[in-house]
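Q: What residues go here?
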């Protein structure tokens, strides 16, 4: 008599049951887990080719229950990721949710989304990352792994996962990312000439000559711009908010007040007069708390608006099209460094928490300050060396 043809013993009250299902051609194990809050009896099922396999699955399921975890048999990585995106990111900035959704849809779900979460191993995650390393930069690999880690963490908080295998792997080296560049002085002047007369001109002048982040320039309002000042206080701009959630700046030190160069003041004064005239022509009231930079319809600028117009300006300036608005900030740092401004002062202007951040992010654009000692000593001892040569 085969194992499948043996008559099944009738299970006692509260016992587990194993029986053969002719339709599925599998053994089925029913586990008794008591009752749900609504009084319904909890009897999840597991399947296997043999009774031994089913008994093993029942044992594993009971261990999960003892640990307070009940991973649904068909709960996949896709389910976990979608649950985190829909429930775990409530209240987060829309752009943050969109970025994580895009990473999941493009680089996570199509590759390991069908895997059962309870069966997912660290080797599975490792293999997936190694494969994606051929297409993604290291930073992107780190971001997409973070999506998986947080999704499993969310599942753990909901008692749908026992452990987080994604924390056991290391991000491999991906494709080299596109390094940020900085405009030299001639290129920067060419961009400003090409931008003159456009809606983005004042925006570019402010970004390039003051180091304001593009995310800080877009939400800037006129009540934070001080063009006419008294008591020997120079014209300045209060960089106190960004497009991030709740208007918070990137870091605490990013919230800063910086003096404006005369050229920026002149351009912003002209921009203010032009904006007042434009709104008066449309019958719109001008408000000192309104946006400094807007679209043609008066709406706040978004990143896509700026990228599109900046790309056209760069093309008119005769430069390669791959320049991005955020590289205006890199250019600001580079031009100051070339002019001999100390690193610690540049760090304050750009709102970095320390000069180490400035050096780490912009090291390719910074003049190496460490060489100044050698250059100075060469100058100091140059005269003495010449006198020594004359004595000989």
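A:
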């Amino acid at each position: 008599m085969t194992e499948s043809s043996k008559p099944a013993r009738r299970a006692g009250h509260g016992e587990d049951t194993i029986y053969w299902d002719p339709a599925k051609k599998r053994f089925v194990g029913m586990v008794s887990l008591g009752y749900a809050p609504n009084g319904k009896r909890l009897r999840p099922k597991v399947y296997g080719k043999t009774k031994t396999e089913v008994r093993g699955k029942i044992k594993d399921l009971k261990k999960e229950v003892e640990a307070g975890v009940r991973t649904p048999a068909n709960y996949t990585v896709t389910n976990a990721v979608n649950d985190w995106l829909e429930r775990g990111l409530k209240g987060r900035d829309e752009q943050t949710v969109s970025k994580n959704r895009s990473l999941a849809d493009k680089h996570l779900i199509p590759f390991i989304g069908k895997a059962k979460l309870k069966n997912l191993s660290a080797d599975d995650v490792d293999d997936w990352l190694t494969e994606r390393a051929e297409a993604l930069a290291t930073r992107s690999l780190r971001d997409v792994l973070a999506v998986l880690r947080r999704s499993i963490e969310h599942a753990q908080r909901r008692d749908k996962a026992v452990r987080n295998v994604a924390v056991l792997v290391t991000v491999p080296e991906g494709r080299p990312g596109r390094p940020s560049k900085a405009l030299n002085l001639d290129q920067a002047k060419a961009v400003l000439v090409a931008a003159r007369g456009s809606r983005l001109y004042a925006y570019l002048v402010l970004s390039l000559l003051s180091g304001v982040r593009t995310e800080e320039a877009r939400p800037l309002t006129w009540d934070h711009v001080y063009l006419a000042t008294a008591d020997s206080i120079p014209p300045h701009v209060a960089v106190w908010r960004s497009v991030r959630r709740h208007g918070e700046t990137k870091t605490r030190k990013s919230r800063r007040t910086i003096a404006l160069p005369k050229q920026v003041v002149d351009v912003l004064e002209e921009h203010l007069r032009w904006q007042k005239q434009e709104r008066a022509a449309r019958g719109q009231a001008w408000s000192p708390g309104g946006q400094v930079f807007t679209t043609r319809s008066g709406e706040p600028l978004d990143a896509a608006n700026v990228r599109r117009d900046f790309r056209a300006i760069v093309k008119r300036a005769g430069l390669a099209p791959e320049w991005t608005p955020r590289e205006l900030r890199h250019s600001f740092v580079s031009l100051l460094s070339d002019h001999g401004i100390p690193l610690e002062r540049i760090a304050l202007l750009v709102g970095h928490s320390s000069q180490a951040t400035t050096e780490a992010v912009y090291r390719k654009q910074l003049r190496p300050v460490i060489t100044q000692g050698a250059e100075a000593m060469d100058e100091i001892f140059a005269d003495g060396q010449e006198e020594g040569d004359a004595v000989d």
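A: Context that may help when evaluating the design: DSSP finds 14 helices and six strands in the chain. Residues 138-157 form the longest helix (20 residues).
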